Amino acid sequence: MIHMRGVVHHFLRGTVNEVVALAGVNLHVRPQEFVTIIGSNGAGKSTLLRALAGVVMADAGRFTVADTDITCWLEHRRAELISRIDQNPLASTAPQLSIEENMALAFLRGRNRGLGMAVTGKRRDVFRAALSKVALGLEDRLTTKVGTLSGGQRQALALVMAILAEPRVLLLDEHCAALDPKAAAQVMAITEKVVSEQKLTTMMVTHNMEHAIRYGNRLLMMHKGRVVVDVSGPEKTCLTASGLVEKFHILSGEILPDETLLTS
Ligand SMILES: Nc1ncnc2c1ncn2[C@@H]1O[C@H](COP(=O)(O)OP(=O)(O)OP(=O)(O)O)[C@@H](O)[C@H]1O
Ligand SMILES: [Mg+2]
Questions:
Q1: Ligand 1 atom 31: the closest Cα is on which residue?
Q2: CA nearest 154: which of 126, 129, 186?
């Protein structure tokens, strides 16, 4: 479903502050694979998702999604195939608009459906049905301003909005990081349900090693702009935090530099 070949990206290129954010990433993600991505601060996790979504245009490399070469597509066109949720609950939804207005925007994303932002009775039924899947009662609050919702409710809404656009690929960048543990657990449960029901191919960045191990069927660890650990199948099922740290050490020849990964 996703092919990335030779993806390289620098920030502040040619200056003394130049950063190699992606140092040549090759990745092949199969349809319906749920990939969790972990790694220390600055490893390049967000840049990888942003480069795939076209938020940043990579310096080099090729991207293919659903057998379509999207390397030259800009972000808005890639949105036909890819939905992305950010860690900031404020970033994925518009606080001054109501739930149904946010959903109308999501419905239109990446495609021309006519009728613009109009919230018709028929659309309201679609929105209610989609919201009822996350079982937070949001389907009865369509006209509530999104700015008044809790962080967890907003991220759950962002998930519903992300799948409304019927993407092939879902990218989650620490979408539970700003939530308290209870809300994070709730949003993760919703994520798992939505991903399996919609049969989405998913890449989820997390700083929570327990989430990275527990969810999904493949785990990547990034370090210095590269994928240094890639575990899937039964090996992933049996993976433990200490086993992962040891694997990182063996494969990268370094000690895991970010202890927060172990404590979160
Ligand atoms: N807009 C930018 N301008 C300059 N440097 C950037 C920019 N965005 C990212 N970087 C740098 O690129 C590198 C990779 O950053 P990235 O955000 O992808 O890391 P990350 O793995 O997502 O880290 P974190 O866990 O802290 O979110 C880092 O060194 C970061 O400082
Ligand atoms: Mg990041």
A1: 42
A2: 186
